[in-house]
């Protein structure tokens, strides 16, 4: 997995962070993404974060999602960030991220899954 994180600051619009993920991902890669984004955003407040997974391929089994949730909840300190996950092409990839997102929402994460970058950006900009 290759991960690149960028910060965009707008004086009137706040802080936006975009993480680009490329290559194959296993559950430990997802954990690394969330930990890296958390560390990157810690000195900032109320970031709007887009995690672009369009160039990744991944399979998350239900048992892996359960373990991953435990790690993310323990590792990620901020629940103030708004997270948009942009899925790799394919219904199976989207479904796996929806399950992950729904589980994290139960722990007060502000998170949603999209197949389209424009819709993800609009959702982040709306501040929902």
Structure description:
Helix 1 packs parallel to helix 2. Strands 1-2-3-4-5 form a 5-stranded mixed sheet, sandwiched between helices. The model has no long low-confidence stretch (mean pLDDT 92). It has 128 residues and is α/β, with parallel strands linked by helices. It has one domain: STAS domain (Transcription Regulator spoIIAA), CATH 3.30.750.
| CATH 4th-level superfamily | STAS domain
What is the tally of helical segments? 4
Q: How would you classify the helix and strand content by structural class?
A: alpha/beta
Percent strand: 25-35%
Specify the overall morphology: globular
Instruction: Pick out the low-confidence regions.
Output: none
Q: What strand order characterises the main sheet?
A: 1-2-3-4-5
What is the succession of H and E elements? Answer: EEHEHEHEH
Indicate the mean pLDDT: 92
Number of domains: 1
What fraction, in percent, of the residue positions are helical?
40-55%
- Seen as an oligomer or otherwise, the chain set is single chain
Radius of gyration: 13 Å
Give a quick account of the main beta sheet: strands, pairing sense, barrel closure: 5 strands, mixed
Kindly identify the CATH topology. Transcription Regulator spoIIAA
């Amino acid at each position: 997995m290759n991960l690149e994180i960028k910060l965009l600051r707008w004086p009137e619009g706040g802080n936006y962070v975009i993480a680009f993920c490329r290559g194959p991902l296993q559950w430990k890669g997802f954990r690394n993404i969330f930990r890296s984004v958390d560390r990157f955003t810690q000195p900032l407040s109320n970031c709007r974060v887009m995690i672009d997974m369009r160039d990744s391929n991944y399979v998350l089994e239900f048992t892996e999602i359960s373990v991953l949730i435990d790690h993310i909840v323990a590792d990620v300190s901020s629940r103030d960030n708004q997270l948009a996950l942009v899925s790799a092409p394919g219904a199976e990839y989207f479904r796996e991220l929806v399950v992950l997102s729904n589980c994290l929402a139960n722990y007060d994460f502000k998170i949603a899954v999209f197949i389209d970058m424009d819709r993800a950006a609009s959702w982040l900009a709306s501040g929902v």
